[in-house]
């Protein structure tokens, strides 16, 4: 018994010594993990460096995606002058290829961005974009394949290397004001869509199509040079590429994600149709060339505030509270204003109003996906959404061109109704995503006999 008592006392003394050591360590360095966590999750949400990145990203989208918004001017020139033997569907395929590569390659460029940041993608995208436009300037008459390869494929690849990193890098610098930052950045693409059509309309008669495109290429080179110097990452990079995780299908388990993806497909299937065909429609209705040639510029000019203001409002009131009304108004505009428009005043009004409300589509879709997705898988899930959107943009405007085999009343009516119905269907699907994610609906579902878990 005495031996047992001695052992017990020794054990108690050792335990007290260990507790003393642990207590001293805790007192000297209390809770080290929480002190490190805020540093890891810290986001500036402003400041000189953060807004400098926004400037560089805006210029990148101005120079790259701004050319997508300019394609209506190219479409009109190709149909009338450079590629008169090609169908409207084939010519619109050139523009849709740009958009397809922009979104489809987002999964790959997203992985490269996670591994190496913007130091590789932005300079490479700059070289490819400028080189492709130089090749466009050398395209020969009725040689559609030359324009398809240079402007459709090569320029589209360059776009993907610029657009996606310019948007993704904002997540390194903004969280609470992310929608505003994305809105300001995507406003750059809208500004390019205003300026580039005007430059082309002025330069083509003066110096010819080739030199007009070369001048555009030099402007783009200047803008992207600034982007290369100002866009930079802040968070640690992985340093390795894993294409296996480029696409995350786990988001489909969330009905909000699935409905938002379907809505994105429907909305972007018809989103670019007015941008591609409004100038042709103005010429068909007899609008004076001095006005018809600037309809696309008017539409793009009005998207500038619609890229910025919705993001600011969405940060305060929720993304869908802005997205759904904007999509609803676009449906009304296409079916209620564009369809019956017959004169310059109504066509100008449609161009301005559609640009004003449709610009929210580009900035609010990734913002909504971010709001329902864990941060660690956001890039992969957004890439999955963009793959679906890429298919929609690839077939959307060529479908419109197939509906417009002949430029007459009945074919334009079919084109406009097709566009309006798809936007309306996308709006309904987006509304369903909001209803599924509604806290009130979840509260009712959880308390209903069918919603209770056994």
Automatic annotation (TrEMBL):
Transmembrane segments: 50-68, 88-108, 120-139, 145-167, 179-199, 211-231, 257-278, 290-308, 320-339, 345-370, 382-404, 416-437
GO cellular component assignments: membrane
GO MF annotations, alphabetized: transmembrane transporter activity
Domain of life: Eukaryota
InterPro entries: MFS (IPR011701), MFS_dom (IPR020846), MFS_trans_sf (IPR036259), Proton-linked_MCT (IPR050327)
Pfam families in alphabetical order: MFS_1
Topology term for the membrane: Multi-pass membrane protein
Major location category of this protein: membrane
PANTHER family: MONOCARBOXYLATE TRANSPORTER, RIBOFLAVIN TRANSPORTER MCH5
Stated name of the protein: Monocarboxylate permease
Native organism: Dichomitus squalens
Lineage summary: Eukaryota, Fungi, Dikarya, Basidiomycota, Agaricomycotina
């Amino acid at each position: 018994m005495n031996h047992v008592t001695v052992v017990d006392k020794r054990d108690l003394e050792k335990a007290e010594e260990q507790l003393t050591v642990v207590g001293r360590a805790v007192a000297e360095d209390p809770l080290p993990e929480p002190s490190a966590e805020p540093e890891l999750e810290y986001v500036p949400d402003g400041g000189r460096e953060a807004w400098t990145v926004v400037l560089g990203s805006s210029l990148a989208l101005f120079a790259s995606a701004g050319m997508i918004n300019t394609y209506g001017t190219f479409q009109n020139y190709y149909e009338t002058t450079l590629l008169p033997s090609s169908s409207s569907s084939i010519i619109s395929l050139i523009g849709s290829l740009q958009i397809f590569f922009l979104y489809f390659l987002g999964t790959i460029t997203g992985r490269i961005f996670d591994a190496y940041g913007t130091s590789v993608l932005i300079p490479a995208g700059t070289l490819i974009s400028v080189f492709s436009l130089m090749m466009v300037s050398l395209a020969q008459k009725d040689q559609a394949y030359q324009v398809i390869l240079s402007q459709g494929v090569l320029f589209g690849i360059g776009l993907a290397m610029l657009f996606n990193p310019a948007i993704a890098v904002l997540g390194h610098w903004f969280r609470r004001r992310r929608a505003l930052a994305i809105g300001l950045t995507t406003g750059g693409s809208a500004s390019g869509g205003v300026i580039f059509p005007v430059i082309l309309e002025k330069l083509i008669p003066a110096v010819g199509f080739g030199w007009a495109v070369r001048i555009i290429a030099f402007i783009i080179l200047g803008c992207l040079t600034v982007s290369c110097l100002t866009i930079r990452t802040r968070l640690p990079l992985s340093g390795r590429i894993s294409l296996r995780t480029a696409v995350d299908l786990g988001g489909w388990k969330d009905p909000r994600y699935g409905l938002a993806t379907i809505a994105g497909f429907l909305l972007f299937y018809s989103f670019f149709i007015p941008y591609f065909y409004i100038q042709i429609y103005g010429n068909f209705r007899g609008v004076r060339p001095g006005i018809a040639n600037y309809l696309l510029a008017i539409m793009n000019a009005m998207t500038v505030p619609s890229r910025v203001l919705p993001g600011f409002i969405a940060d305060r009131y929720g993304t869908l509270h802005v997205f759904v009304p904007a999509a609803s108004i676009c449906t009304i505009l296409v079916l209620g204003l564009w369809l019956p428009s017959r004169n310059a005043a109504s066509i100008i009004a449609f161009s301005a109003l559609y640009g004003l409300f449709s610009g929210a589509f580009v900035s609010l879709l990734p913002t909504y996906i971010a709001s329902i997705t864990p941060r660690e898988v956001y890039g992969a899930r957004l890439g999955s959404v963009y793959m679906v959107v890429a298919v929609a943009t690839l077939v959307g405007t060529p479908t419109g061109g197939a509906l417009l085999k002949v430029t007459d009343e009945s074919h334009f009516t079919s084109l406009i109704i097709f566009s309006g119905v798809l936007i309306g269907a996308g709006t309904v699907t987006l509304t369903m995503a909001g209803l599924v994610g509604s806290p009130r609906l979840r509260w009712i579902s959880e308390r209903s006999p069918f919603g209770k878990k056994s």
